[in-house]
Write a structure and sequence with these properties.
alpha+beta, 7-stranded antiparallel sheet, 4-stranded antiparallel sheet, 2 helices, globular
Length: 156
């Protein structure tokens, strides 16, 4: 019986180590393809191409922005967006902005839902190529936007 406990601990420790190796491999292989696709989707529309802070199988997190695969929504009313955030779907990717700064963009085309769930009265501004304001959204507001084209945005 005394041998069984150390043997069980050895098996458990081996499984733990093997599990860590498997998890690391999974993040670099099949899930890595998905993360790479998210990073590519973000790089395609973020002109400044910021370095990600954290990458997981289902999200790429930047300072002030989280990029995820877009949920299957019917419209803005179905787009989950935390309080204090400005969220939108562009080209099948969800962008969740939560830092007050100007974000330079490129290739923002098509239509997509948005939710401005920032502090009541906060105005998000969307800009043309020349820096003029194309349109604004005052929190709380949700709807569908035409992104053709938006060159930069300031969530607050």
């Amino acid at each position: 019986m005394d041998i069984i406990k150390p043997a069980a601990l050895l098996v458990a420790a081996s499984a733990l180590v093997a599990g860590s190796t498997v998890a690391a491999t999974a993040a670099a292989d099949p899930a890595g393809t998905r993360v790479t696709a998210l990073q590519q989707a973000a790089d395609e529309v973020l002109a400044d191409k910021p370095a990600p802070l954290r990458v997981s199988a289902d999200a790429v997190q930047y300072e002030g922005l989280t990029v995820t695969e877009a949920p299957r929504t019917k419209g803005a009313q179905d787009l989950a967006c935390d309080y204090g955030h400005l969220c939108m779907i562009v080209k099948g990717t969800k962008f969740d902005f939560y830092k007050c700064q100007t974000w330079n963009l490129t290739n923002w085309t098509g239509d997509g839902p948005f939710t401005n769930n920032q502090t009541r009265g906060t105005v998000a501004k969307f800009f043309n190529k020349d820096g003029s304001v194309r349109w604004t959204s005052t929190a709380y507001q949700a709807g569908t936007a035409t992104w053709d084209p938006i060159w930069s945005l300031r969530p607050c």
